[in-house]
Amino acid sequence: MEKQRTSNQRTKPNKKSNQRIDYTILTVVIILALLSIGMIFSTTYLQFSTGSLTPTIMQSVWYIIGFGLLAITMRIDRQTLYDFAVVSYFIGIILLILVLFFYDRELAITNGAKSWFTIGPISFQPSEIMKIAYILLMGRLVHQYNEDARIDGLEAMHRKERMRYDFSFLMKLLSWTLPPLLLVILQNDLGTTLVFLVMFIGVVFVSGITWHIITPAFLIGIFIAVFVLLLVIYNRDILEFFGFQSYQFARIDSWLNPFGNTANESYQLAQSLKAIGSGGIIGKGIGNFEVYVPVRESDMIFATIGENFGFIGGALVILLYFILIYQMIAVSYQTHDAFYATIVAGIVMMLTFHIVENIGMSVGLLPLTGIPLPFISMGGTSLVNNMLSVGIILSIEYHEHSTKEELEKSWIIRGVRHLNRLVPQQVMKKI
Q1: CB neighbour class for 176 (10 Å; exposed up to 12, middle 13-18, buried from 19)
Q2: Which site among 173, 215, 338, 416 is 20 to 30 Å from 204 CA-CA?
Q3: Which residues are within 8 A (CB) of 56 and not within 5 positions of it... i.e. 6 or more apart?
Q4: Which residues pair with 117 in a beta bridge?
Q5: What positions belong to coiled-coil segments (predicted)?
Q6: What are the structural domain ranges in the chain?
Q7: Do the beta carbons of residue 129 and residue 95 sit within 8 Å?
Q8: Treating both helix axes as pointing N-terminal to C-terminal, what angle do 338-362 and 267-278 enclose, rounded to 10 degrees?
Q9: Nearest-CA neighbor of 259 among 268, 359, 303, 232?
Q10: Can you tell me the distance from the alpha carbon of 355 to that of 249, in angstroms, rounded to the nearest whole number?
Q11: Alpha-carbon distance 379 to 33, whole Å?
Q12: Mind listing the pLDDT tens digit for each residue in 108-137?
């Protein structure tokens, strides 16, 4: 009888190991979605006597679209995603070129960035879609590097030979990073430029490149950053020659002295600090505002959270983000695939930078850059980018338990494979 019980215990399936969806990630995203809709309702309807429900409805619609795209992306298998990396990259580059000529003139006057298409009531930012395409391509390149390294016997190479090998690959990564980076710089979008740099750093760190190359490159990067900061303080003419705009300097000035010119450059940050401070420990409750903060439904939405829900509410939001990022990193540890691991690293770096920069600028720790708070700030393109990211993360665990028959029957996978045919096979094999 005891032997029978033991046998049953051994053959009993482990539900957790067969679980195809990471419900922790999904639950956090749903909570953030509800918080987003609630905060936008609070700022655009309850705050004003003439408030409108349109922004709340639009955000809800974008979330419906986002969850639909999440469900679709989650069902795309590794090989199809691997092939789609090249197609999506070139589509993203084309869109980044087009927006330089057909950008929304009114938005460019407002925020200084030529990074938006506007079709009727809908605005679209191609650089958000390019972030995902870039991460996918980096994953493909790192996977190919690891395969080539295994074939070429990288571990047995002499140190100098290994450094030449890895330096060549670093230059390859950089060559595919520069096109989107330069196109975003031409759009005068400093925030997105920084996001691409951060994603590139994350990819390099997980790529397998020797530390004999990464360490000096990292130190050079720090030196350049410090040098630029010194130029901002002591000699801005050089930076203006390289394309820095006056509004970007104004944002840095307001960061260094948030209450120095509250009638102009520092007004937004000063109001954000007042709003968060007025929320105290537990906040004033949803819809209760005493401080006006410009664009508090998008860039400065953390000020809304701080004023409505206080320190406790802000801390809980940060905790939710911590859980989300932690679970994503856990997924990367479960996979031994360089393609997937690089994708997770890129997404984690992208989301983490968005979170740290947005909250940091809202509380005065970092300069204003216009970077939205993931899953909470109002904005369709940013939200779609975030939901696609989560869908890709979920697809890793989902397809660990997929059969070949399931993949062949999927209309989603067949559709993406048709898109992959847009790029000639000769080009695909070279990347």
Answers
A1: middle
A2: 416
A3: 37, 40, 41, 44, 45
A4: 124
A5: none
A6: 25-209+245-430
A7: yes
A8: 90
A9: 268
A10: 22
A11: 12
A12: 777 777 888 887 777 889 999 999 999 999
Residue 18 tokens, joined: 């067969």
